[in-house]
Predict the structure.
Amino acid sequence: MDSNSLCVLSSQGKHFQSVGKMLGFKDWFKWAPLANQLAYISGEGRFFVENKKMTIAEIPTSKQQKEYTPKGYVDLDLEWFSKDLVIVARSKENKEWKEGPVPTMLTSLFAINIRTGEQQQISFPRKNELDEDPQIVNSYLSFFRRKADDFQGDVWIKDGITGHEHLWIKNADSAPVFYDPK
């Protein structure tokens, strides 16, 4: 529960390589759309309050890895927008928490240009709300916005990174799953 090894295997099954340590969430690692790059949320420890960093591994040489999460923050989900742009759900670390119910991390979405290192906030939930589960279909970004103490929420959508966000589906149990046959 505290750590899993992220490994890759070549398409012919001849080369096996350990990439890093992470928690076992299927949405926390994704291949780049046009390159041999693997984006993943690195870090050990079962709680989301600290030590979760968006990392890019150049494959096959996993030694060339770069973390993009600023000090004092955690990234808890990711999605590739383009070959140079990754969307993450980011929150401030909560190092004060030690025991009891794990606090909800109030995430908002950030766009990271992995070529230049430039980062910008692209969603702005209200106080006590969080944006999570970013998904890309063509040029559209969708995400799930909910109150911290609620499991239901709304699906929001925006055209591109700088487009205006608008409510798409109200009172949903979870974000929809899109199939994009690229």
User: Anything to note?
Assistant: The domain at 4-97+104-172 is CATH 2.120.10.30 (Neuraminidase). The chain has a mean pLDDT of 88.
